Each structure stands twice: as structure tokens, then as C-alpha cells.
Amino acid sequence: MQVDILVLNYNGRGLLAECLPSVLAAAGASRHECRVAVIDNDSQDGSVVWLREHFPEVRIFCCPNRGLCSLNDVLARLESPVAILLNNDVRLAQEAIDPWIAPLLEEGGAARSGCWMTAPRCYGWDGQYEGGKTAVRWRWGLVQASGLIGGLETAAERASETASAGSALAVDRDVFCRLGGFDPLYLPGRLEDLDLAFRAYLAGYHARYVPEAVVWHLGMGTFGPVFGQKRCRHLDLRNTLLFQWKNLRGRGAIVRQISGLAARLGADSLRAPFCQAENRWEFARALVAALGRLPLLRRSCRSEYGDGPLEALWRSGPSAQSRGLSWRQFRRCREQEFFRRFAPEAIAQAGGPSPSAFRREGQAQDDPGRCGVYPGGAGWAGKRHPREEKKRTEESPDAVSEAILLTGR
Fold first, then answer.
1. Which residues contact 194 (CB under 8 A, 6 or more apart)?
2. Mind listing the pLDDT tens digit for each residue in 203-222?
3. How many other C-beta atoms can be found within 10 angstroms of the C-beta atom of residue 236?
4. DSSP state for residue 219 in the 8-state scheme
5. Is residue 195 a contact partner of residue 186, using CB atoms and an 8 Å limit?
């Protein structure tokens, strides 16, 4: 079967030099026909020229810089049933690809099995577990998605469904395109991946965590140098608000948002006298920025919910006829179920012996499971990139858990 592996790049010539050889090696080791391509977002560092000189076998798509949204246009032009989407700071274990995409091929693909996205087990370049099995929780009125909350790192060897996937994911290309891909509402980036996975979940599909597939991710390899920690934090907060306003309709979610809004604004005012001027009113600034994107938010809601593309995807998917519910009822149930199923305590306990243990959506309420192996021996563990070292020394654990809502970049 043909598989497209797409590496998204912006001014990442050095990262490509470190990571692309592992991608090509993994493609060569797969039993599938893998085609590797780089999507270049108008790099100014000579990435394209360098690629043509050093990797002439790699196809290059030159696009305007639209962040992850550049993947939308390219995937619409391809014909392979499955695609792997990578940031330019991701390295692959040589045997990663086949187990990674296997769930997407079970039972005739996503239309029957419901699995449309898979996430690998992800480590930092220093060998520390980064995520892949993602949980969601509420924290002071904001949704937080992360693979490092609730002790999830202790469950890294157990496969399960996952709320989202970040820097490395495999997708059913048809479902991705019918969902509309990544939403430009969130540009320049952060939280697009959670939004995409959540919309698919509303339509009756799900994502799986595959621990047998192992990758290593630098983290903030492109976003960090361009935006810096403070700007990334601002985008996290702004885009979390946009995600909630766009997607969440449950009464409980609305109450949480309103109470959290008041609490965070109150915390801003209490901190203000003790902060430097540039650090004051952090949440208030993000709120104002989110309100400034309301026209884009309304347009996004109309395009995704107003004329029924999600409903159409649901009706042609695996869950349409099994529950006897209308689309409105099904959507409400799935929203509530999303936060129950992917709560940290639920996701940490989910798991089973193998990918074959998965059952179709609607046939069982328990989280299915898979197994995994520790990467070992590939030479990456313990290697710390200079930017990774700097980032870890500058960020406290509290700042990481609160600020990085794990969009994977």
C-alpha cells in the first residue's frame, strides 16, 4: 500500500539534516510503498536548495507559510489512503511505520473501524518520555491536553485511545480532508491538532496511541526560535479560548468556562502589582486577542458545523446507525463522553495486550488496548540538544504543566 510521509518545514535546514535521514531509513524499512516529501513553508534559510542538493529523491512542495494548514492543500492533492505527518524536528525509529499505521488498515479502514488517526510513543531528544497518549482535563476554566498529566508516563507501554496527537501523527487521508484539515482560525499555531481530533470524535471516529511506534521530538524546534516562550504561552491561552468557544456546547462546559474566566481575570489583577509590566494581565491579553478573532471564529463555525460537513461525515461513518440518535443528540453525547473517556485517571488505566484487542466504536464502553516496547538501543536516549537543554533550564515544571497545552511544537 502507498503511504505518504510529509515533513513540514520552516527555516529548519539544520533540523532536516538531523532528522530526515531517520525518516528515509524508516520508509525504506517499511513493507509499504512509502514516499517521503517535505512541505516547505517559504523558508528563508536555503532549505529548498539544500534539500535538492542533498536529498534529490525527496519530493518538495513549496507553499506559503500557513503553519500546519499547508498540510491541508497538499493532502488534498495526494491519493494515498494513509499519510504520516511530521514536524521537521522529529526522528523515527527504523521499525516505526508499520505498527504505526496498522490500526488505520484494520477492518477495512476508518469507515468501518472508526480509527482515523494514530499517535506514536514520543520521547524528547534527551530520552525523556514526552507523550503520545494524551488526556484532557479542565484547569481553571480552560481545557488542558497533555501526555504528562495524571501519571500518564507510567502507562506509556499500554496502548489505548488518545484524545489527540501532536508533532507526529498518521491519518486516514480521506477523513482528514472531509474534516477540512487543520483550522486556520488558530494560526500561526497551537491547539490545531486537538481541535482536529475533537471534531473527528464528535463525528464518531477516534484516535489510537500505538506505543510500538517510537519517535523522538526536539520540541519547539521551529516555534520556539520564531515566537519565544512568552508568545507561545499567549497563543496557547488565546487558542484554548477559541477552541472552547468554537466546539463546546454542553452546559457543564459553559459553566466551567464562565467561572474560570472570572477566576483567571481575578488572578491577573492580584498578580499585577507584583509583576513586571510586560508580564501583567497575561490572561486578559489572551482574552482580548481571542475576542479579536470572533469574525474568523464565526466563519469557522459556519464552515464546519453550519452546513453539515461533520454530520455528513458521521452519517457515512461507523457510528451513524448503531445508537438510534439524531445528529444533535449524538454530538451532545460525544462531547460529554470525550471528557470522561480522556480524563487522566481513565486514560492512565486504559490499555490492553495488543492492537487486535480494539473493538469497533459502539460495541464496548471500555477503552481498548495495545502493547508496546521501550525504544532502547537506537542511540537517541541521553542525547540532549542545546536548545532542549536551554529550554529545560529556563522552564520550571509548574510552567510546563500550566503553559504548554501540548500541541506538540
1. 136, 143, 145, 163, 164, 243, 405, 407
2. 999 999 999 999 999 876 56
3. 21
4. S
5. yes
DSSP 383: -
Phi, then psi, of 333 in degrees rounded to 5: -65, -40
SS3 call for 408: coil
- pTM of the prediction? 0.84
pLDDT of residue 171: 97
Please, which pLDDT band fits residue 323 given cuts at 50, 70 and 90? low
* Residues whose CB falls within 8 Å of the CB of residue 386, separated by 6 or more in sequence, listed in order: none
Query: Quick one: which of 106, 108, 109, 104 has its CA closest to 120?
Result: 104
- Report the alpha-carbon distance of residue 383 to residue 321 in Å, rounded: 50
Name all domains of the chain by residue range, CATH numbers in brackets.
2-226+335-403 (3.90.550.10), 230-306 (no CATH)
- What are the pLDDT digits (tens) for 367-409? 322 223 333 333 344 344 444 444 444 443 333 333 333 333 3
> What is the per-residue pLDDT for 222?
66
Torsion of CA 19, 31, 113, 118, to 10 degrees: -10
The one-character DSSP state at 321 is T
- Long-range CB contact pairs, 321-327, < 8 A, 24+: 322/361, 322/362, 323/362
CB atoms near residue 123 (< 10 Å): 24
Peptide bond into 273 cis (omega under 30): no
Average pLDDT, the chain: 83
Handedness of CA 145, 150, 156, 159 (dihedral sign): negative
CA angle 27, 30, 31 (to 5 degrees): 140
User: What are the residues facing 145 on neighbouring strands?
Assistant: 136
- What cell numbers appear for 243 in the block? 477552541
Distance between CA atoms of 300 and 240, rounded to whole angstroms?
15
DSSP string covering 33-76:
EEEEEEEEES-SSSHHHHHHHH-TTSEEEEE---GGGHHHHHHH
Helices and strands, number each (H, E), in the chain:
16, 12
Q: Is residue 222 a contact partner of residue 19, using CB atoms and an 8 Å limit?
A: no
CB-based contact 239:227 (threshold 8 Å): no
